[in-house]
Specification:
With about 250 residues, the chain is of the alpha/beta class. It is built from seven helices and seven strands, in the order βαβαβαβαβαβααβ. Strands 3-2-1-4-5-6-7 form a seven-stranded parallel β-sheet, with helices on both faces. Strand 5, helix 5 (about 150-170) and strand 6 form a beta-alpha-beta unit.
Amino acid sequence: MSKLNGKVAVITGGNSGLGLATAQTYIEQGAKVVIFGRNERSLNEAVETLGENATAVRGDVTSLADLDRLAEVTRQQHGGIDILFANAGLGVFAPIEQVDESGYDKQFDINVKGAFFTVQKLLPLIKDGASIILTASAVHEKGVATGSLYFASKAAVRSLGRTLAAELAPRQIRVNTLSPGIVRTNFADRTNVPAADFEGFIGMVESQAPLGRAGTPQDMANAALFLASSDSAYMTAADLLIDGGWMSV
């Protein structure tokens, strides 16, 4: 039996990387999926790949008007939401001396403001007993030079998961964070790190992680399926760390 048969899922950042892999997995498990992203071309390509059970809405998680439109499209097409995966994000890395206000605002607006208002704007559609998943990161408890903005923003997302879990518990809405380690996706395209340097970081993590490899989008999609389904029915305010053991050993 499909784990998400008849469910409706909304995924921000669902047009690429682990968001797209999760959308595909949810559909395979019986869900109808609304994906939300900024890039119209990749949204169209994603819907073509995902098929008739996917709908694309173009917009930016930092725009409350765009999130209102996402809510309205979802309401019109599906009525309510069983699964919300607030996954959109990016990374800005720089020594503290080189961080300017615009870089700070961009990082926190997308990763923190975006996650917060995604939940707020879609909450009226979220059904009692639903699952909310926020994408944090394995580094939310770590410190690495030049990572102050990204790491702190993901720590904020982890904290948000706890507080939302407490606030929404009376409705039996579960809120958990998914914390990927290094994953080979197009994430590098959404950072300011040169490709060679990013590859070097991946190699460092692979050498330190007990499993000796980077994660895949499907690794993360499988974890997101667990958090979305009744398999995790007694799990809320938790952080699911999927990083090959890098942070734990």
